[in-house]
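Two proteins were folded this term; both appear here.
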Amino acid sequence: MTDASRTAPSPLPQREPEFLPKMLTVLREGYALRDLRADALAGLTVAIVALPLSMAIAIASGVGPERGLYTTIVGGFLVSLLGGSRYQIGGPAGAFIVLVSACVMAIGLEGLILATFLSGFILLAAGALRLGTYIRFIPYPVTVGFTAGIAVIIFTSQLRDLFGLTLSAPEPAEIVEKVAALWEARGTLTGAALGVALGVIAVIQGVKRWRPGAPGMLIAVALASVLVAGLGLEVETIGSKFGELPRLPPVPGLPVMTGEAVLAALPWAVSFALLGAIESLLSAVVADGMSGARHRSNAELVAQGAANVGSALFGGFCVTGTIARTATNVRAGSRGPVSGMLHALFVLAFMLVAAPLAGFIPLAALAGVLAVVAWNMAEKEEFWHLLRGSRADAAVLVVTFLLVVFRDLTEGIVVGFALGGLVFIARMSEAAEMSGAGAAPVAEQDGDRVVIRLRGPWFFGAAARLGSVLERIADRPREFVVDVTDVPMIDSSGARAFLLLARRMARREGVLIVVGARPAVRKVLDHQGLAAPLVRHLPDLGALDGR
C-alpha cells in the first residue's frame, strides 16, 4: 500500500434517498437471526397491546370490532414495510375516534371506507411534494391542546358503556348534547357494567405499577371476560352486540366511487389526511427521541398513504402512527420494521385461531381500556405548564382545546396553528427590536437625504414597522437611502414595503436608493419591480457621493 493510499481520506457515507423505506436500510446494515428473535418478541408484545385497543377504538368509532383488526393487520403491516421510521407502529388510533364516528353518522360505513381510500392518495401526494418537512413546525401548544381535547372526547364517548346506560334515542355526537342525553338516562345505570369498567381500570393501573412490563390491558380484559361469563353477569359483550368475529379479513375490493359519493367523502378524507400526517409524524419524533434514530418524514407520509389505501381495500378505516404502541415497540427491544410487520401477523393469527373468544369481551371492559388511554394521552403536566407560562401560549392552548372539544377537530388545529403563527410573528418582531434589528436612522447628511440601516431578516412582521419609522421622519428628503448590507434575507412582504416607499418618493420627485443588497435579497427586490428608474442600487454607502 502506498503512502498516498494510506493517507487518502475515506469517502463520506452517501446520504440515503429521501423516500427509501427504513426496511431496506435495516437489511443493508445486516439482519441476523438474533435480530429476528428480538423483533419477534417485540412484535408479540405490541400485538398483545394492539388487540384490545384495535377493537375498542373501532367500537368507539361506530364500526364493528373486526374493522379495527383489519386496520391493524393491513395498515400496520404496510406502515412498517414502507415507512420512513425504524420503529413506527401503525393502526387505528384514539385520535381518530371523533372524526371517524362523525363520518359514519354523516355518510355511513361505505362513505368512511371511501374517505379512508381517498385520504391515502392525499397522503401519498403530500409525501411526494415533500410536505412532511413542514408539519413538524406545528406549535407545541397546538399539539397539546388538540391532544387534550381528543382525550376529553374519547372519555365522554365511553360514558354510556362505562355506566351501562340505555338511551332511548341514538347518542348525540356533540359533547354538550351527549352529556345531557347521558344524564337523562342516568336511571338506567347498570351496576355490573360499572363494576367491570372500574375493575379493568384498577387492574391496568395495578399491573402498570407492580409489573410494568406485563400487558396490563390484555390481562384486565381477559379477567373481565372470564368474570362476566363465569358469573353470568348482565353486561353487554362484543358477541351480544356484533355477533361472532370473522376468522379472516375480507377479499380486497374497491369502495363504491360515484361522483356524489366522492364529493361527500372528500372533506372527510382531507381531515383524515391532515390528522393522520400530524399524528404519525409526532409518533415518529417520539420514537426518534427514545431510540436515537432519525426518521424520514416524507417517506413516512408515503407509507401512511399506502397503508390507508390498503386498509380501505380490505374494509378497514384510518391508519396512522400510534404513539403508545410505537413506544411499546421501542421499549420491547425492536431492531427495526420487522417487529411492526410481525405485530400485524400476530393479530392475523389471533383472528384465525381465537376470533370466537372475542365475543365474550364485555363492552364495559373496552370502555375501561379507552378511559385509561384518554387519561394517559391528555398530557396533563404539559397542559398545566403551558397554562402557567406565557399568556400567548396559554391562549393558543385554550383556544385549540375548546375548539376541538366543542366545535371540530380540524377547525381546532387550523385556528390554533394560525394563532401560533401570529404569536411567532409578534415574538420575532419583539426580538428584532430588542436586538437592534429593524429600521433605525443612523445619519442625516443634509436636508435632502436620510439614511436608514436595516439589520436582520426583513420579513412580513418586521416590514410592518417600516411605516412607523417613516412617520417619524418629519422632513421630506429628495433621497431616501436604505442600507441592507446586514439583511440576510427578505420576503415578498418586506420587498413590497420598499416598493411602496419607492413609489412614495417618486411622487415627491425623489428617489429610493438601496445599498449593499446581497444577491438573494436583490433577486427578491427585482422580482417585486424594484429596479431603475424607480430604485437605484449601490454596492455600499461609500458610493453615495461618488456616483
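Next, the second protein.
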Amino acid sequence: MRIGLLVIAVVLSFFAARLLQLQGLDPKSYADMATAKDVVELTLPAARGDILDRNGVALAGSVNGRMIIADPLRTADRAPELATLLANELDLDYFRTLEKLRRDGSRFQYIARRVPAATAREVLDKVNKAKFKGLSTENEPIRDYPAGDVAANLVGFMGTDEPLAGFERSFNGHLSGKDGETRYTQGKGYRVPLAENSTVKPVDGQELRTTIDRDLQWYTQKVLAQAVEDYRAKSGVAVVMDTRTGELLAVADAPTFNANKPLESDEEDLGSRAFSDVFEPGSVQKVLTAAALVDAGKVTARTRIKVPPQLQRQDRPINDWFSHGVLRMTMAGVIAQSSNIGTVLAADSFGKRALHRYLSGFGLGQRTDVGVRGEARGLLPTPERMTSQNKDRIVFGQSLSVNAVQMTAAINTIANGGERVSPSLISGSATTDEGLEVGSDHATRTRVVSQKAARETMLMMERVVDDEVGVAPRAQVPGYRVAGKTGTAQRVNEECSCYDGSFSLSFGGFAPADDPRFTVYVVIHAPGVDGGGGSVGGPAFSKIMARALSHYGVPPTGGKPNSVPVEW
C-alpha cells in the first residue's frame, strides 16, 4: 500500500506540474496554440487609386477580382483531384497546388491571386458541382489598363504584389493606400459567430491625374509606330508639349507594350525611351545656338556669312551635309539650309562660358524631374572640359547628348518667347516615393533669351519648311505657319564609345509660328533607309501637329510666312 501510494503521489505531482505550467506560468501562449488552428487572418487589400489622363479618363484602374483560398484540413482528402481541376482552370502548377492543398498544420493557403471575378465564379461552380470541400474566395481588386498600350511607357504595370514600372512604381505610396485586415475563428469551414472576430478596414489609395491627353497620345503612338515601321527603324520617340504651360500632352515610344500583358514584350520596350535614352541632337541644336547668338547681340537673321566649301579646324575639317562652293548666306540661310560651317563661323564670337550658360539655361545637361524613374541627364561639357574642338561641334549638335523630353522643352523655350517653362507630366501636385514633389503646380519659369531674340529665331526656323529655300517642306501643316528644325546625328555605340554608322533623324518645331500653341519633337533612331530629319521626321511631325491643332480647335492665325532673305 505504501508503494502504491508513493506511485500515485509521483503521478499526481507530474499532473500538478503540468497544470501549473499551463495555467500559471504561460497560460496565454498555450491558449493561443489551442485556438490558432481555427483562427484565420486575412489581408483586406486597399483599392488602388486610378491613374487618369488630363480629362479624367482612366489609363489604369482596378476591377473586381477574387483570391482563391484553401483550408488544407478539409482539402487534403481529395487533393490530387482538386489540384488537377484548379491547375487546368487557372493555369497553375499542379505539384505546387497539390502541396498547398495538403499543407499539414495549416488552415489557410493562397491558391490563386487576383483572379477575374467571372473566372473565379466559374471555378467555384465546378468545385461545388464536384463536391470538393475547403475552397473559398475573398475580394481582391485587379489592376486593369483599359487602353492597353496607350501611355503604357509612362503608366507602367503591376506585378502580383508590387508595382514594377512607370507611374505605378514612382507613385506607389500615393496610389496604394493602406491594406486592412480581418481575423476570425472558424469551425468546420464556417465562421464561429461568438468567437474572435475583428476587422480593420483598408484605406483606399488616391487617384493620380496626369497631363496626358489619351486621344492625342493614341494618335501620336500610331503615327510614330507607322514611321518606325515604314523606315525600318530601331525605335522612335515623339513628344507633344503645351507651349504655354509646359504640360506634356503626349509622350510616345515605339516599340511599346500592352500594360495588361507586359511579359509578352521585350524588356527594353517596357520603359520610356523619351526619358532614358540619350543621343546627340544634331542640327536641331543649331536653333539654340542661333537664339543665344541673337540674344547676345552677335547676329541677326540677316547677318551675312561667307560659307566656304570646307572649314579647317583643329585635327579634322568640318563639312556640310551637301557639297558646295563658296556660299553667301544670311544667318537665316544657315538655319534654313542647316549649314554646319555657317553655324561654327557665326559662333566664333562666342566664348565657351557664354555658350555653356545659355545651353544650361535651355535645360541641357539636367534632368527634367517630372516623376519618371530612370531619366538620363544627358551630357553637356563644362567650360573647363570644353575644348575648342568640341565647342565647334557642340554649336551644331555633336559632342553633347540629350533626352527627347529635355530637347522638347529647349525648343519650346523659343516658342514661348524665350522663357523656359519646366515640363510636367502630373496635373496639380504629387510626391514620388523618393520624396520629389512634381506636377504642374510646381512648374518653374526662367528667362533664357529675350522675346526679341526668340522671335528672330522663329523667323529663321520658319524658313526651314519653305518650299523653295528650306530643307523640310514636308513638315508643313496646311493652313498654318510652322517653325521648325531638322536634325541628323550619328549614333554612338555604347560598347566601343564610337559612332556605329547609324543615325538619329529628328524634327522639332512649333505652330502656329507667329502665335505658338504646341511644340512637337519627333526622333527616329537608326532607320534602315537613307534620308534626313526633314524627310523622315518631318512627315510624322506634320501629322501629329495637325492633329493637336485640330483636336484643341486652334485656328490659323491668317498670317503669311516670312520672307527673310537666306542669301546675299
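The first strand starts at residue 39 and ends at 44. The two ends are 135 Å apart (CA to CA). These notes refer to the second protein only.
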